[in-house]
Amino acid sequence: MKHKGKVSHWQDDKGFGFISPNDGSERVFLHIKSLSLSGRRPQVGDVLTFDITLDDKGRRQAKQAFFPEDRGRLKQKQRQQNKRSSHKSFVGKLTALFALLLLALVALGKLPLLVPVWYLLLSLLCYWLYASDKKAAETGRWRTKESTLQLTGLLGGWPGALLARHQFRHKTGKTSFRLLFWCCVGLNLLALGTALKLGWLALLPEIAFY
Q1: CA–CA separation, 68 and 59 (whole Å)
Q2: Which of 61, 67, 159, 205 is geometrically suited to a Cys-Cys bond with 29, CB 3.0 to 4.6 A?
């Protein structure tokens, strides 16, 4: 539940103060960290919207506080969080569905076990490449070529690339890279479907576990 109130006391050198809620209830402790959305520091008399929680000692404190002018940024942040949550759900469902499809085809005897093993190994490699490239980008070290990332995805590592791109938020903003990535996914699935239809996969050796 959102509450409104005015800053009744503020110690700027220490980064904390108190809010007097508009409903006349007991004042609420405010720490500067609770104003993560704002670009400025509060002053006595400022109006804030905030949530109220209790600390370990049962004292009331403000959380997720924001100024009236920050409302637009708060909504934008919530939209971004919802978008990321929706994308995470899509990525998880797509990779899980693809894995289940491969296993079902193996169980039906229409796909050699070597194929899902290949996808697993390439996905692990692709995941590692994206993770390493993300770290290299943050530390200024030698980067992995985009062509290497795309080629590994094209050969079958795209499920791992999907998971890595979402988890590390890497290579998600460049439109040309995203388009080429999904083209590689499409080509890989097309090649798999064609090989399956024409019976080429039957020529692959079976994996035996003893």
Answers
A1: 25
A2: 61
Yes or no: say if 74 and 37 are a contact pair by the CB < 8 Å rule. yes
Round to whole Å and give the CA distance between 159 and 149.
Answer: 12
Of 21, 65, 71, 61, the closest CA to residue 42 belongs to: 65
Token pair recorded at residue 132: 């390493």
Tens-digit pLDDT profile for residues 74-101: 666 667 666 666 667 888 899 999 999 9
pTM higher than 0.70 for the full model?
no
